[in-house]
Amino acid sequence: MNVKSDFFLDYIGKLRDRGVDLNYLAEKYGTPLYFIDGNVVKQNYENLRNAIHEVYDKFLICYAYKANTCIALLKLLNSLGAGAEVVSGGELYAAKLAGVPMDKVVFDGVSKSPGELSYAVFEGVLLINIENIDELYWINKFAEEFNIKVSVGVRVNFDIPTKTHSNISTGARIHKFGLNVENAFKAYSLASKLSHVHVAGIHVHIGSQITDIQPYSMVVDKVLSFCTELKKLLGLELEIIDLGGGFGIPYSIEDSVFPLNDYCKVIEKLEHASKEIFTSQPLLIIEPGRFIVGNAGILLTRVNYVKENYGVKWVLVDAGMNDLIRPALYGAHHPIYNLSSNEDIEIYNVGGPVCESSDVFGFDVKLNRVKRGDLLAIMNAGAYGFSMSSNYNSRPRPAVIMYYDGEVKLVRRRESYADLFSHEIF
Ligand SMILES: Cc1ncc(COP(=O)(O)O)c(C=O)c1O
What we know:
The chain is an alpha/beta fold. It folds into 2 domains: 7-37 and 294-420, Lyase, Ornithine Decarboxylase, Chain A, domain 1, CATH 2.40.37.10; 108-288, TIM Barrel (Alpha-Beta Barrel), CATH 3.20.20. The protein has 13 helices and 17 strands. The strands form 2 sheets. Strands 1, 10, 11, 12, 13, 14, 15, 16 and 17 form a 9-stranded mixed β-sheet that branches. Helix 10 links the parallel strand 8 (240-242) and strand 9 (283-286). Helix 3 runs parallel beside helix 4 and helix 9 runs parallel beside helix 10 (260-277). It is globular, with a radius of gyration of 23 Å. 46% of the residues are buried. The structure holds pyridoxal-5'-phosphate (PLP). Pyridoxal-5'-phosphate (PLP) binds next to helix 11.
């Protein structure tokens, strides 16, 4: 028996108290269906903003678009003052659709195409963080064509391992991301000589779903000593420190919560130490994705069948790995609840309709007894859910609804069979 309170179940109860009936919404809009809670997004954003504000004056939270690019959600975050961290031309376009001012947009990416760089230069984003020395030539060329100077940062790979899943760890020497210290120095040296490049920042992002504070503390130490060396050896003083994202969230009631207070202590350390290095306080950028939207999303799915196979009870639902790939991709855990039953708990495997054995949302899941037609809620599906979805098995992607300030709105219509083939030429 678990002594911790089940905050996922509590949250479903709170939604009901606020008049949000997930069963009714699933009937109305059909399943599978993504539900986004804009109030939770707002709360997550404001908690983070207020906490950082206590310890650092000049900062910008650039929400990482890759976590979820639903435009209604982006517009909400824009209205709250968030900037954008984008990693593709498509995400930059989404920022424009959401009305985000370009001086709040950071363009990252390990393999940006010349076309994407030209687009970012043309739009006048706040900062382009490079991860390859050759990007500098492209940026300088495009900036010259548009007759502007472009602010550039360098993503440095300080070889900092993290305790997260290997597929979402990005800051160690084995990873493709960033430039090692020696090459980063070369990049800064070159950038400082290019006529249309302004050397502005440093960028580090060590991974995702991190709940341990020690790697962040290490990042700040490394960044500070790197900036000291940069000033001493190349005479460069940076204006922007971009510490990336990666703040983890609990996916089960056993998981730890991101220690925001400890993170703020790390930022406070940065604040104190930076007075020694910089003549004016650098702009601090952070790029959280999951922390802002992860617990604000639910994937609602209807049970097509319940069967027993070789002694195992299978619940087969209408959502698949094409809608939410995290369990199949990294064995990620998502809490699942039966919203249609109060009967005794039984143990099930929950699988989707896709023709892959990895299309399973959970093994040995405890659910109130399930029957055909029941509605299941797959929790914490707000980050890397819809944004990683696909049309695999020629499955139209789900509709998305968003709840905000007492109102539920359809913010993305369900794809049709015709949508699936609308780009085919035949
Ligand atoms: C460069 C960069 N910034 C920010 C993020 C956001 O990470 P998270 O959603 O874990 O905060 C990512 C995610 O991979 C990233 O690659």
